[in-house]
Amino acid sequence: MTSKRQGQHLLILINDILDLAKVEAGKMSLELSEFAVRQLVEDTLMLVNESALKHNIRMVTIFPDDGDALTLNADRLRVKQVLLNLLFKLG
């Protein structure tokens, strides 16, 4: 893992800890917006792809032909955090 990726991973972990403290204190606020699920998934996979390849893991996305139309109304950052946490648990 490169220094830049390690820094990104560390920042994600720190943000997760801070967010957990906010949830426990009842101070978590969500920023709802509509976003493309496919783009979020692909952006997230790019963050872990290098690490996955070092472990001989090939990460791919498979969406239906109309997958670009799939949107979600949620807090984009929180959804990305969940995906990153799940992916890092796999590695």
Quick structural overview:
By secondary structure, the protein is mainly α.
Account of the 3D structure:
This protein is mainly alpha-helical. The protein has one domain. 60% of the residues lie in helices and 11% in strands. It is built from three helices and two strands, in the order αβαβα. The protein has helices spanning 3-24, 37-54, 76-90; strands spanning 32-36, 71-75. Strands 1-2 form a two-stranded antiparallel ribbon. α2 (37-54) packs parallel to α3. The longest helix has 22 residues, at 3-24. 3% of the residues are buried. The model has no long low-confidence stretch (mean pLDDT 82).
